[in-house]
Amino acid sequence: MQRNTPSRRTTRLTRRGRVALVLTGAVLAGTAVAVPLLTIHYDASAHPRTLVIPEGWRSGQIYAAIDKALALAPGTTQQSLAEAHLDLPGTADGNPEGYLFPATYPIDEKTTPQSLLSYMVDTANKRFKAAPVAAGPQRNSMNLYQAVTIASIVQAEAASKADMSKVARVVFNRLERGMPLQMDSTLNYALNRNTVRMSMEDTRLDSPYNSYQRMGLPPTPIDSPGEEAMRAVANPAQGDWLYFVTVKPGDTRFTADYSEHQRNVEEFNALLRGETPEPAK
Fold first, then answer.
1. Fewer beta carbons under 10 A from the terminal one: N or C of the chain?
2. So what's the pLDDT on residue 278?
3. Per the domain annotation, does 277 fall within a domain?
4. Spatial CA neighbour of 35 closest among 224, 253, 232, 246
5. Based on the domain organization, do 159 and 194 belong to the same domain?
6. What does the pLDDT look like over 21-31, one tens digit per residue?
């Protein structure tokens, strides 16, 4: 680096333990629920400043990120929601979950929590209402808010972008058959955590987000989906799959056969226990 060049911000993070990103000129903050923050090196005089919101972050993480980026007391952004006058669907009932669009946002001395939240929601509305994403809900007989809710599940459940359209198809297939979604991601949202270890006790939780016990979609989105997830919902893959599990990185198995799914889940559990799975018979 040249001596007369201002130092620049470098943020390193990992998301779901799979991806490492290096962001230059960015401020990134959040909780340790889904995105552990590893290192931050910055020069306060560096310009411009930006706030990076990754795909899949929950609203609580985003509020905390805004508080940190603007050097505000924890909880300030969440408390300012009523003053932000956000352009949300009526069915959202004032809850911006799912509409705080993941992107890079500029920050300056005039930035407020309300202005940032409005910018995020306005960006979501523009992206979600643009073709071809907007055509998907109509084609699949649902409204836009339901599409964003499904996309948030796809965002949380898919192990890769390549799996997103298949996960979306599983959601549609289960809804069409009157089956509970049984998605760990919705239960994790209710419990405010992110884990692949789910117990039978967890699945008995009394919550509208418990898709093991409740039919249909959860009452709100569960995170901020990106455009890939929305496109997957607009154009889900063709298939009869009803089950899926990521047995190991790069190995997500989709099936319509429950017995086959059970074998895949047992292989996944064996790997979690550090055992060598028995070969399929």
1. C
2. 62
3. no
4. 224
5. yes
6. 333 344 444 33
What per-residue confidence (pLDDT) applies to 32?
35
The number of domains in the chain is: 2
State both tokens at 113: 């929590």
- Provide the pLDDT confidence category of residue 277 given band limits of 50, 70 and 90: low
Tally Cβ neighbours within 10 Å of residue 45: 7
pLDDT tens, 193-209?
988 888 899 999 999 99
Distance, CA of 174 to CA of 168 (rounded, Å): 10
Angle of CA points 227, 231, 237, to nearest 5°: 145
Domain membership of residue 167 as a residue range: 136-241
Strands (E), the chain: 10-15, 19-24, 37-41, 49-52, 104-107, 243-248, 251-255
- Average the pLDDT over each of 40-54, 141-155, 190-204, 205-219 and give the range with the smallest value: 40-54
User: Rounded to whole angstroms, how far apart are CA atoms 85 and 92?
Assistant: 13
The answer for 98, left when phi > 0, alpha when psi is -120 to 50, beta otherwise, is left
* Residue 102 confidence (pLDDT) above 60: yes
Residue 96 CA, chain-centre distance (Å), reads 13
Same domain, 118 and 180: no
Distance between CA atoms of residues 91 and 121, nearest Å: 15
Nearest to 60 by CA among 224, 186, 173: 224
Torsion of CA 222, 188, 36, 157, to 10 degrees: -70
Is 177 a member of any domain?
yes
Which residue among 85, 110, 128 closes a domain? 128
| Same domain assignment for residues 16 and 105 | yes
